[in-house]
Amino acid sequence: MSAIAASKGASWLLESQDPSSVLIPERLSDEHRLIAQTTREFTSKEVVPAIGQLEQKDWTLARRLLSRAGELGLLGVDVPEEFGGVGLDKAAALVVSSNLAGCASFNAAFGAQSNLAVTPILYFGTADQKQRYLGKLVSGELVGAYALSESGAGSDALGAAARATPTAQGFSLNGEKMWITNGGFADLFIVFAKVNGEQFTAFIVERGFSGVSTGQEEHKMGLHGSSTTPLILQDVHVPAANVLGEIGRGHKVAFNVLNFGRFKLGAMCLGGAVSAIGESARYAASRRQFGKAIADFGAIKHKLGEMTVRAYAFESLMYRTAGLLDSAIHAAAGLAAVPAVMEEFAIEASIAKVAGSETLGYVLDENVQIHGGNGFVSDYPAERHYRDARVNRIFEGTNEINRLLIPSMLIRRSLKGALPLLTAAKRLQDEVMTVADPGSPIDAFKKVVLMTLGLALQRYGEEIADQQEILLSIADIVIETACAESAMMRSTVVPGNLSPLHADAASVFVNDAALRIDASARHVLAALAEGDALRTHLAALRRLLKVAPVDTVVRRRRLADETIRRGSYIFQ
After folding, report:
1. Could you say which of 90, 303, 417, 483 has the lowest number of CB atoms within 10 Å?
2. 383 carries an active-site annotation
3. Catalytic residue among 396, 480, 485, 562
4. CB count, 10 Å around CB of 325?
């Protein structure tokens, strides 16, 4: 594979990116570090102490905190200065979102504001719409919300029943939207409805418009300090000037906003995981059983080590993705081109969303386990973190939908000639039984992606979309490969005396990823073939996945010991 910088989405599956060109946290600028510090101080001093009040539905306080975030420049960190933002890059947006840790309820309000309300107006709004709304959203003077889902159209967003009927001055909107974050106190809503029941279109709807109302607060499993309500539209007059984007092109707004949202949701999940690792380490060091701290037991060391390994791999993926986005945006040189860049990297956005939400879910589950009985009661934050995180696998498109999107987009791009995956897959079929050395573990993982994807298409052709179980397993292989390669590249170039621990984290993740990839690939192959054909495919898989095992026990222990010593995630 040629060592060139990946310039197109998913091209890393076919190209080996130069590790020196990859963005890693250790290479952040002083400006990035300063805004990280600002975010952490805001969160620890102003947001976390307010959790109790937020969970009592104090929406006046929620608005005040959003306004304060606006004052600090956090709501518009990647919004150009001409619209009231700070004008930094996507790496800065990642830094802000990942340092808003400790209060998931406020993170939900923040994300709805900075991602779901600001982004569509910034990239699809008219000059007049930007002038009227954008500066006030970025400052926190106005609070925004995003109204896409309906009770009968969750994952099938384009199946919305809300209607927009043309009138002499604009449109009359009718319908009901569900699960609206910030719904109880938002000033404006990005609403999606079908003009004449057919043309899916986005609108900017102000709360003050006649016929706009919100329903009762939802009683949720978690995020008790976040407002979630229905939005009810009854003959709402919306001026023609408030159409967002083009009539009938609302899907462009919706899906591009989701690409942004998935990436930034991944960033928030990263922050939650990193914060919980510190909580676990400090608790384990202080909790004594059988005459010593539970942190001294191998079973707890294993947990802390594995939590660190998974967070490290995902963190490496997120910063690498941010670097790819910023490079592509810089090359495009224009605000109008940013949605196209995000669309180009939609596969990476879905990977970030799935890997982030599931990494966080794993870490928080282990956090509860390390706390034991104290993890199950509200006296400790472990219980709240656990409940609050579950929705992340549903937000921004369920993990199932995002998993299906990953191989589906790969196939679609390959069939269009934008990504020569199928050509590479066919070449691999000719080589796999004759090439003695499959290359590095990462090269082997990529070849397993090509092998399973190519065989699935060969078997089912265009009907592969109906084989969701197979697509889900292929997606898992892609996600593992992306995280493993990102971790390995970071570990080879990181400076400083922590580099041996970076190597430990990367090698453990790659070792275990090989086992998980093998299991997923066997599931795919067994569904595609039987008899001699299956035995041939399994033999090819064994040749590819010749990954020498490493001593993961000693490596996890080293990671755990340093985590306990510091009382925090060691790579921050």
Report:
1. 417
2. no
3. 396
4. 26
